[in-house]
Amino acid sequence: MTAQNHTGESRFLLLGLSDDPQLQPILFGIFLSMYLITVLGNLLIILAVTSDPHLHTPMYFFLSNLSFVDICFSTTTIPKMLVNIQTQRKDISYPECLTQVHFFMIFGGMDNFLLTAMAYDCFVAICHPLNYPVIMKPHFCGLLVLVSWLLIFCISLFHVLLMRKLTFSPGTTIPHFFCELPQVLQVASSDTLINDIWMYLDFVLFCVFPALGIFFSYHQILSSLMKLPNKASKHKAFSICGSHLCVVSLFYGTGLGVYLSSAVSSSAHRSKVASVMYTVITPMLNPFIYSLRNQDVMGALGRLPGRVVSCLDGL
Fold it and tell me: Which residue in 59, 132, 147, 284 is a FRET match for 110, CA 20 to 30 A apart?
């Protein structure tokens, strides 16, 4: 086929998770359920944090932002997949694909930065408790999140502008269930050297640096925990960052699985299954991890219905 530049009529074919017609209703039901659980669970976390004054702290400020990002992260990929399953179509337009790449990079990058900010918050709370109110001021936390949004938005937009210069063959097939940057670059007909270079640079910025920041924070935290005199102090310190450590392990563990599966095996199916873990499963489990392992969040969720009823009575 002759390669052509992007046009408004250009369309890609997303292979999805399976070609078996009998599996399509099952996949639709499973992913619809997981998406609804993700939205509801993270929305409850946001409402609990914003409505309860006891949770107006830097850690829960970052947590509410993480819940919002997780809702958007899942919304970037799952609804389009559900529409394709329901309509028995696999196509996605070129502008839709670029949009999906753009927002997937934004929300994926924000996940990394927010997890790093939460690790830093734990580090300051445990290693420098006396300076915590001075360091983790509300305006500093807000500025940190704002700068992260602006930085990631600009870098993601730059990638989209680079992709607009690529050419693709008509009816290009993407062996995935959504438009992910590496997958799209692999099926391009034109040279992608510049795109690949920027992609690896962004991988270092969005993934390696945050992971190193988290590792450094927990290294310092563990060093401080070893110096604590009694088990009660250690248990209290661990309760501060235990949920966050679980979420970090889940997010980076599944993300690492995606790249290892791609590197070790050329099977597109294994890569798609690994991608499901960090794009669908992780955002769904985060609210459960933070609520079940955190008494403050559980208490706020318990008081949430009463606050909702009070607000309705006030209307």
Answer: 132
CB neighbour list of residue 222: distance below 8 Å, 6 or more residues apart: none
Q: Put residue 150 in one of left, alpha, beta given phi > 0 → left and psi -120 to 50 → alpha.
A: alpha
Name the phi and psi angles at 178, rounded to 5.
-155, 170
Phi, psi torsion values for 56, nearest 5 degrees = -85, 65
- Could you tell me where the DSSP H helices lie in 52-137? 58-87, 94-127, 132-135
Residue 170 CB partners (closer than 8 Å, separation 6+): 1, 2, 4, 10
CA-to-CA distance for 256 and 260, rounded, in angstroms?
6
Q: How far apart are CA 72 and CA 100, in angstroms?
A: 11
Global pTM reads 0.88
What would the two tokens of residue 248 be?
Answer: 């970090």
Residue 95 sits at φ, ψ, to 5 deg, of -60, -40
Starting at the edge strand that comes first in sequence, how are the strands of the sheet with 11-14 ordered? 91-93, 11-14, 173-174
Instruction: Tokens for 189, please give them.
Output: 């007909």
| Angle (deg, nearest 10), helices 295-314 and 282-292 | 100
The C-alpha R_g of the chain, in whole angstroms, comes to 21
What pLDDT is stored for residue 223 in this prediction? 86
- Mean pLDDT in residue range 151-178: 89
Alpha carbons 218 and 232: distance in angstroms, whole number: 19
pLDDT in tens, 180-226: 888 899 889 888 899 999 988 988 888 889 999 999 999 998 888 88
Mean of the pLDDT values across residues 94-102? Answer: 92
